[in-house]
Design goal:
This protein is α+β, with helices and mostly antiparallel strands. The protein has 2 helices and 6 strands. A 6-stranded antiparallel beta sheet has the order 1-6-2-3-4-5, with no helix packed on it. A hairpin with a 4-residue loop joins strand 2 and strand 3.
């Protein structure tokens, strides 16, 4: 995972953050909204209110376009190889077995 350090003033709704608390506990959750002195995150399906003075570090999860592109290219290559190496006769035989 790639993270970018974030400030509490730049939190973006529905973005995924890694939250390090002052007691060294690390949480990961989606930012929902800011209160007067606290922040609300969705963590494991639950809304969790975290007081601002308990947050030591915030890091926003980044999506790497390079990794996304490489993953997509590998998946596409895999599908092409599967299609090229498919045994057409076996497929036709299976269809005939279903018909009979």
């Amino acid at each position: 995972m790639t993270y970018k350090t974030a400030d509490t003033q730049e939190l973006q709704d529905n973005r995924l953050y890694e939250i390090t608390l002052k007691n060294t506990k690390v949480l990961e959750g989606k930012f929902l909204r800011q209160g007067s002195e606290s922040y609300v995150f969705q963590i494991n399906g639950n809304q969790v209110v975290i007081p601002g003075d308990q947050i030591s570090l915030l890091r926003r999860k980044k999506i790497s376009l390079v990794k996304l592109g490489v993953g997509t290219a590998l998946a596409t290559a895999g599908v092409i190889l599967l299609l090229e190496n498919a045994d057409k006769r076996t497929f036709d035989e299976a269809i005939n077995d279903i018909r009979n």
